[in-house]
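Please, structure for the following, as tokens.
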Amino acid sequence: MLERMRRRNVPAGETAVVLTAARHIAEDLAEGLHGRRAASAAARLRRLLGARAVLLADLDGAVACSGARPEPDDIGALLAQAYEHATPAQREGWTAAPLLVAGELAGALAASGAAESDLVAAADLVARSLDHAALRRARARIAQADLRTLRAQISPHFLHNALAVIAARIRSDPDRARTLLTDFADYLRYSFSAKGDYATVADELQAVHTYLELQRARFDDRMEITVRMAPEILPVAIPFLIIQPIVENAVRHGLEPKPGKGSITVSGFGEGPLCVIEVEDDGVGMEPEFAQAILAGTGSPALGVPPREAWGRVGLANVDQRLRTVYGPEHGLVIETAPGSGTKVLVRIPRFMRGVTLD
């Protein structure tokens, strides 16, 4: 439809009207043909086409209509004709154009009193809107599945060690043991809470600080912790459980293998429209190729590292995928590392983005 408008050199004011209508139709179809606003989409399509009536149908029949509804037998025969060859069909003053979503027949757009060429263009608009809506819903389901996976990956190794540290200090330092037990309960409560998809940077930071205090006790206070967060990013909404897995990887794979003391720094600041979070450790580091393999969810054949050796760091791949799903492919994790030189993991995401809000 928009291509034909360009060829016809439609006046700018009319172009704006058509573009606005197309956007509203896509919003109305965000839940699919059976969504709550399908009737609104039919009404907008009727106005856009200047038709007497418009009908949206799935493969089982009509689902929404604006204007005088045709007789059931007539519309049934019309849809059957359109579906048989997946081509436009006409009957009793009505024209139907099939909806091909991702190459599959999904329904039809039918109208009375509209030019066939306009109806076909409108059907393409509807099909694309349905396709995009299905992709958005699929991404949301993937993000939810990734979050469930991440919760399931909270290390039993860490849980066991945290309880062991608390038990060991009950006699020698009961006050510290009591504090650590409270921290442990707070950490579990946050990690397994029924929160929505997003949390504030402040909430994530509190969970990270609790986790690091438990780890410092396990390291017999040989681990130095530095947390620096600019106040302006504390209320920013970010995907739930984004920072903690990065910090956990820094402790487990950076500091645990390193003899002696170690340090970890978590910092955050605003960078124009971006929220930047960095997690840096002075641990053993790794080959840059291995870091790439981790984010790809594979091993590193060039280094002789099979995929199973990367499984312990699967949280990073999970976080990377969730960031790309929410913000786009340009907002994945960045890892700066080298053997013996520690590791820095950077997150750069928009401070404000449509759909990224607290429930």
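Confidence is low (pLDDT under 50) at residues 4-10, 300-312. The longest helix spans residues 116-152.
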